[in-house]
Amino acid sequence: MTDSSLSSLGAKVVVASSGDENHPPENITDGSTETFWMSTGMFPQEFIVRFAEATTMSAVTVDSYNVKHLRIEKTASQNASQFELVTEKGKGNVHLQYLFLNGSSATHLRFIITTGYDHFVSVHRVTVQN
User: Fold this and answer.
1) Is 37 within 8 Å of 23 (Cβ atoms)?
2) Which stretches does DSSP call E strand in 21-118?
3) Which of 20, 52, 76, 99 is the most exposed, having the fewest neighbouring CB atoms within 10 Å of its CB?
């Protein structure tokens, strides 16, 4: 299983529900845990990642802080519609790993943070395993 940063796959954050000029959503894809996207409060918060092409993956790892409950949805649609639930997890804090069914393919992933341990949450890195 190969672990790849989103930027190495040509992926970009195309939608984010909030943004902070010092911690923009683009930081999620740079592969570093030193940079991060920070929400501006209130829930739910979400971001959508678009891959350069349909990407097959077996798992996705999310490095985050203060995230209490997270849903991950996927679509193979080119226009980021008709998302389907892949997994949802709760009660994590810094490093969370979410597993897909082996060989799941997507053009977009939507991450929905439904609750946090505080008003603000941060996502430091998302990687996929294929």
Assistant:
1) yes
2) 37-38, 45-65, 67-75, 84-90, 95-116
3) 52
Whole-angstrom distance, CA of residue 94 vs CA of residue 14: 24
pTM over 0.70: yes
Mean pLDDT for the stretch of residues 66-87: 90
Q: Cα(80)–Cα(107) distance, rounded to whole angstroms?
A: 8
End-to-end CA distance of the chain: 6
Residue recorded with tokens 């996927």 = 74
d(CA 32, CA 54): 23
Express each pLDDT in 5-39 by its tens digit: 788 888 999 999 998 899 999 999 998 989 999 99
Q: Which long-range contacts (CB under 8 A, 24 or more apart) does 13-19 make?
A: 13/37, 13/47, 13/48, 13/49, 13/50, 14/48, 14/49, 14/50, 14/80, 14/108, 15/46, 15/47, 15/48, 15/80, 16/46, 16/47, 16/48, 17/44, 17/45, 17/46, 17/47, 18/42, 18/45
